[in-house]
């Protein structure tokens, strides 16, 4: 799938995309391999409790593509290659992968960024294996919050991480909710501020991360 000029413009302006149903036929295999990797690599499961996740549990396995041949094969899937190339150009870098079970929400945050290369585009591709919406932990993004050089970003950055300043719950922030069903592909710029509201469930997600070439 080559992204259209409209999709490319949307991503550049707002910092995220949703590609509905792109992997619908792969859901049974994705789900099977997700559970296989947790079963076969129990010693590699990290039980992570962090303030960003409201001090609730996220379980994850890092470098999932190194531990599961099927998940590794998606790196050579034309759909992934074409989407990533459309956004990052030729010679992009694969940054890593993980398989996660979220029994938590998250505060608004950005994903990891090399502070020396903030002008480089880094993207996350996310496959959720459950139906998720506003009440059950769908990702919420603040559109355009990846434009780090403008006044709007500066105000966000000063206030977004301090609930004592705005005194707002995750659900109250003006954000776009990316509801999805298994088979949809979600992707966002690392720099986009995003969060999830805890829905009392355990959300399963496989994520791949890429960056522009040096």
Key features of this structure:
about 210 residues; 6 helices; four-stranded antiparallel sheet; seven-stranded antiparallel sheet; alpha+beta; about 25% helix
Q: How would you characterize the overall build of this protein?
A:
By secondary structure, the protein is of the alpha+beta class. The protein has a single domain, classed as q2cbj1_9rhob like domain (Jelly Rolls, Sandwich), CATH 2.60.120. It is built from 6 helices and 11 strands. The strands form 2 sheets. Strands 1-9-6-11-4-3-2 form a 7-stranded antiparallel sheet. The chain has a 4-stranded antiparallel sheet with strand order 5-10-7-8, with no helix packed on it. Strand 2 and strand 3 form a beta hairpin. It is globular, with a radius of gyration of 17 Å. The two termini are 25 Å apart. The model has no long low-confidence stretch (mean pLDDT 89).
Please specify the SSE layout and strand pairing.
Elements: H1 5-14, E1 16-19, H2 27-40, E2 46-49, E3 57-62, H3 69-73, H4 78-88, E4 93-103, E5 106-109, E6 122-128, E7 139-141, H5 151-159, H6 163-166, E8 176-178, E9 185-189, E10 194-196, E11 203-211
Antiparallel strand pairs: 1-9, 2-3, 3-4, 4-11, 5-10, 6-9, 6-11, 7-8, 7-10
